[in-house]
Structures are given as C-alpha cells and as structure tokens.
Write a structure and sequence with these properties.
The protein is an alpha/beta fold and 345 residues long. The chain has nine helices and 14 strands. It is globular, with a radius of gyration of 20 Å.
C-alpha cells in the first residue's frame, strides 16, 4: 500500500505533540513520520502512536523525498524554511501566521472551504488559520449559507496554551504562588494571568486593536466572505486548554434560534449542546481533548433585526491547530490532489 512520508516541524512543542498524536489516532496513511525540531532538541524523543521518534534538526533535513510537512515552528522559522521546503516538492501545511494573508497561499478550514486547498501548487504552502478563527468559521459557515451574515461581534476567552508551553507553566507557577503567598512574577504575559484576565493577545496596532483581533477579522473574510463585517475583543483567561467565544451575529435574512440550532446539529465539525438549564452548555474544560467545535447558548438577540447570540468552545490545540492541519492533509490525499513520491510495498 502507498503511504506518505510526513515530517512534523516543531515536534517538541504543544501543537507538534498533538500533530503526532492525531496522525496516529486518525490512521493517516503514512509510510514514515519524521520529527523535526531546533538543533537544541536533536535526539529528544517524542511519541507517535506506540512508536518513539528521535528528533532531527529542521535546518539540516532533506525534504526531497518527503510528501507533507506539518509546520508548527513559529512564523519566523516558517518564513525562512517553508519556501525552500515547498520548492523541493513537499507540501507545507503551516500553523503560523506567516502565510495566511498571502494571496497565493490557501487559508483552509476543511469543513468550510476545502475546495480552495486545490490552489496549493502556487507555492506548495497551505496556511492553517488562527485558532480562534477556526472555531468561529466552523460555526458561522452553515449559518451564512442559510441567512447571509452581515456583521459579527465576538469576544474571545482564550486559554494560555495558545501562547505555548511556557505560558502554561506560568499559569501553573503563578497559581501555586498565590496559594503559598509567594511573589507572582509575570514573564510570558504582560500582567499576572493567575486569577485574572488579560485583554491583550499579540501586539497592539495603530487603531487600538491587537493583531489577534485583526487576524480574526481578516482571516474570516478570506475564508468565508469578504463582505462580512467583524469586530473582536480577544482576552487571555486562566484556562490551560480550550478557547471560548461569545458571538453576536447579524444576518441579512431572518433566522430563528431553533432553526440555527437544527442547522448546526447537521453541520460538519459542529456539536450542539444547548439545554436551557443549569450546566446545559459546554465549557473549555469539557472540550479539552475533543475534536468537535461545540455550540451552546443559541438564542435570538432582540436588540437587532435578524440577530443571534452563540457560545462557541473548542480545543485550540486540536481543532484550532493540529487537527485542522491533519484534516487539510486528508483533503489533499482523499481528493487525490497529492500522490506519494515513493511507493511502499
């Protein structure tokens, strides 16, 4: 049987670990999996299913016989290496923000715009959207198809894992420090994150928005519809894994909460848990480790015409990053847009 040689760049990070786990869980048709990282991590062991892989250095790796590179090594690394990797005939599926707004690079969420992935050949790079954008457009797409979205107002509640392992360690260390009355020292974040929320993710822009908020606006337009107006406030919260979003949507056409609920129940990647009783909704704790994007608190907004409110929760390391990347690879394989370089008996 033919299989694909897959490299995971950034294999020692949070998302890299998830990429390896999801490739194994979903039984992606691999002939070989290679773990790549920085020179400092050469020889470090990572898990792939029941196997143990030793990391190799990205900078010295020859991609000429590799089919797919799942890139999660950061924007600067991707800017340097992805064009070279693509030029070798290996398709890069990149998790950073480096290529998302490049007009020659498809920005893909398979449940939303899988067909656009066919354009990967211009640079052999496909971009994975921002984690907060992924779960948003999974929910918006089926509703947009039905009633046409005019405007979206979203407030995010984003877990610290979106900022990497050091951020998770900081939340843990600060929480412990609070309980034992030790000094609380912010390092990764601009302010204390333990028992606090921080309305700042990424750098500030001239208009007062943060780049995270800008990403959500621009990526939603590119993936879903450039006519959609979107404004966001992105907030870091003291949660380890799982992003949540409170979303207000204004539609062109009338749509009821009941109809929206039924549409989302049938939509790919969506799972509706919406009981109007205490606990009848999903929190990030429950979404951690799960593949679905969860919708709760679906209700009509009486303050605007054709308005709905939704609560959307997803595991940012899985659907927001690693799972979406593997699903993109599955699109290339299942639609026969990519064939393995080497045939394996």
């Amino acid at each position: 049987m033919s299989g694909f040689k897959v490299a995971v760049a950034g294999a020692t990070g949070n998302v890299g670990h998830e990429m390896l786990a999801i490739l194994a869980e979903r039984r992606f048709p691999v002939s070989e999996v290679v773990a790549l990282a920085s020179p400092a991590s050469i020889g470090r062991e990572v898990s792939f299913g029941d196997k143990t892989l030793k990391c190799k250095a990205l900078e010295h790796y020859d991609f000429s016989d590799t089919d797919i590179c799942l890139m999660s090594a950061g924007g600067a690394v991707s800017k340097e290496y992805s064009p070279r990797i693509g030029a070798s005939g290996c398709v890069v599926i990149d998790n950073s923000s480096a290529w998302r707004m490049d007009p020659d690079v498809p920005l893909i969420v398979p449940e939303v715009n899988a067909a656009a992935a066919k354009g990967f050949g211009k640079k052999n790079i496909i971009a994975n959207p921002n984690c907060s954008t992924v779960q948003l457009v999974v929910a918006l797409k089926p509703l947009h198809d039905r009633a046409t979205i005019r405007r979206v107002v979203v407030a995010t509640y984003q877990s610290v894992s979106g900022a990497g392992k050091d951020a998770m360690d900081e939340l843990f260390a600060q929480t412990r420090a609070v309980f034992v009355s030790d000094p609380v020292e912010p390092k990764k974040f601009p302010k204390r994150i333990a028992f606090n929320v921080i309305p700042e993710i990424d750098v500030f822009m001239e208009d007062g928005s943060t780049k995270e908020e800008w990403k959500m606006m621009m990526e939603t337009k590119k993936i879903l519809d450039p006519r959609i107006k979107l404004t966001a406030t992105c907030v870091r919260v003291p949660v380890f894994i799982g992003h949540s979003e409170a979303v207000n949507v204004e539609f062109v056409e009338p749509i009821s909460a009941d109809e929206a609920r039924e549409i989302l129940r049938k939509a790919p990647g969506c799972l509706v848990i919406d009981r109007r009783e205490p606990g009848g909704y999903v929190t990030p704790h429950e979404a951690a480790g799960e593949d679905a994007t969860y919708m709760s608190r679906i209700r009509e907004d009486p303050t605007i015409d054709n308005g709905l409110n939704l609560w959307i929760v997803s595991d940012n390391l899985r659907k927001g990053a690693a799972l979406n990347a593997v699903q993109i690879a599955e699109v290339l394989v299942n639609r026969r847009w990519l064939k393995p370089k080497l045939k394996v008996a």
